[in-house]
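ZP: hey, is the coenzyme A complex queued? I don't see it on the tracker
AM: it wasn't, my bad. submitting now with these inputs:
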Amino acid sequence: MKIAVYPGSFDPITNGHLDIINRAKEIFDKVIIAIAVNSSKKTLFTLEERKELIEKVISKRKELDGKVEVVIFRGLLTTFAKEIKATAIVRGIRAVTDFDYEYAIYQVNRELAPEVDTVFLLASREFSFISSTIIKEVARYGRVLKEYAPPEVNEALLKKFGHIQ
Ligand code: COA
């Protein structure tokens, strides 16, 4: 069974992330969405909220059923990947601006665990400019962009910013 880990902050999950997850699940038998505990990044949603939100989004999408799981991990990604017997790390690249950062992480991870390779998927064109920061910024002012994030996420964002109950 080929297991891949898809790490990130997911604060919150966007349609861009879902695009990558949907495509990764065609390549691997199982995709583990791994929410990283990153103390240097101030997040809007707590770890548990992010996990619950992703689980809600997954449960509403039959095509992901049984193929995708969500976990929270602490520490090094490569250590976690080996623990869950993942043979690959999946990362999405949206534009050339993502490349330098991803290449640096790739080199570090490769050094730490040569047996865990990284598979880069290029974001589909319609999602290549989405980021969690952008959707949070718009929601802060009471608006959501339907194509950017799943409805469950848009609702959670509007609630978080007090625009709906
Ligand atoms: N579609 C839409 N948005 C995407 C995207 C895609 N396909 N791919 C990335 N993004 C966005 C995210 O929304 C996020 O946006 P934001 O900055 O506005 O929140 C941004 O790109 C980058 O976030 P993310 O992919 O979550 O990466 P990160 O930099 O927060 O975390 C980890 C990267 C978790 C993989 C890395 O920190 C890690 O491995 N940590 C564990 C510790 C470790 O092992 N360190 C050694 C390696 S350095």
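AM: back. The chain has one domain: 3-128.
ZP: great, adding it to the tracker
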